[in-house]
Every structure is written in C-alpha cells, then in structure tokens.
Amino acid sequence: MKIALIVLLTLVVIGLVVVALLPSQRSYTATEVINADVSKVFAIVTDLNQQSWRRNVGEIAIIDPSPGREVWLEKPKVGPEIRFRTKVKNAPDLFVIEIIDNPQFGGQWTGRFSATPDGKTKIEFTESVSRNGFTAKLLSYLFFNLQKTVDQYVDDLRVEAES
C-alpha cells in the first residue's frame, strides 16, 4: 500500500512538472488552394453576419460593427464563448483577428489570401494561441486540438466557396 502511494505521488509530481514545462504558446498553419476567386473567398471569411457554413459555430453576436475594427462574440456549439476583434482587414489579401477580454487565454488568427494564375485562391491560415496559468495550459493540451480546428475551418470554407 505504501509503495502504491509513493508511485502514485511520483507520477502526479512528474505530470505536474511536464505540464509546467509545456510551452504556453502554440501555433498551426494550414496552406491550401480553394477553387474560387480570391474576392469571393475573402468575402466569405470576413462576413461576420454569414458564418453558418462553419460546422462548429452555433452563433455569432456582433458587439461593435465598426468597419475594420469589428468586435464579436463567437458562441461555438461546444466550448466557451470567445470575444474577437478585427486587427487588420485588407481586402482581398489579409485578415487578422485577435482574442480579447479573456484572462485565461489569448491568441490571433491570420488569414492570407492570394490569387493563383488560374483564378483560384491560395490561402494560408495561421492560428496562434497562448494560455495563461497552469490549469488553462493543461486543459488546452488535453482538450484543444489546434490542427484539427484549423483544418476543419479550411474544409468548411472549401465546401462553402466551391459550391
């Protein structure tokens, strides 16, 4: 019994050390070609009133519609609400948004759009997240698959833009 308790406590301490050593910031980039015009793809991504094409979003509530400085609350179908703000909106090349007003985590999403010679759109989407605090970092690594989230967004965009 004593040995089992020592082993258990050792495993807990090792686990705590591992989580403490994990980086607080993570990033993932997806690059794809969408079979649609760059202006159309940019418009789909930046139209906050029409985001129903995204499978994981339940609702978006626009808080401040100021052009180029929009603020909105994204309510996913699963998980906590996230408040975003537009940082840069240069049609049809660049769209950058940031997470705001959240003490547990922050982040930025950058979308780069460029026309290909054959009229398609090359996209490069980078999502970067940072977690503040031990618990937020642990939950992030256990329950938030950054690559899956970005890849699903790209898949949903492809379906919407190419239809």
List the helices and strands and how they pair.
Blueprint: H1 2-21, E1 25-34, H2 38-46, E2 57-64, E3 71-76, E4 82-90, E5 94-100, E6 105-115, E7 121-131, H3 134-143, H4 146-161
Antiparallel strand pairs: 1-7, 2-3, 3-4, 4-5, 5-6, 6-7
The total count of helices amounts to: 4
* Total beta-strand segments: 7
Strand content: 35-45%
Write the H/E string, N to C. Answer: HEHEEEEEEHH
- N-end to C-end Cα span: 63 Å
Give the low-pLDDT segments. none
Structural class category: alpha+beta
Strand order across the largest sheet: 1-7-6-5-4-3-2
* Radius of gyration, CA atoms, in whole angstroms: 19 Å
| Average predicted confidence as pLDDT | 87
User: What is the overall silhouette?
Assistant: elongated
Give the oligomer, counting copies of the same chain as homo and different chains as hetero: single chain
Helical content class: 25-40%
Describe the main β-sheet briefly. Answer: 7 strands, antiparallel
Structure report:
The protein has helices at 2-21, 38-46, 134-143, 146-161; strands at residues 25-34, 57-64, 71-76, 82-90, 94-100, 105-115, 121-131. With 163 residues, it is an alpha+beta fold.
Summarize the structure.
By secondary structure, the chain is an alpha+beta fold. Helix content is 34%, strand content 38%.
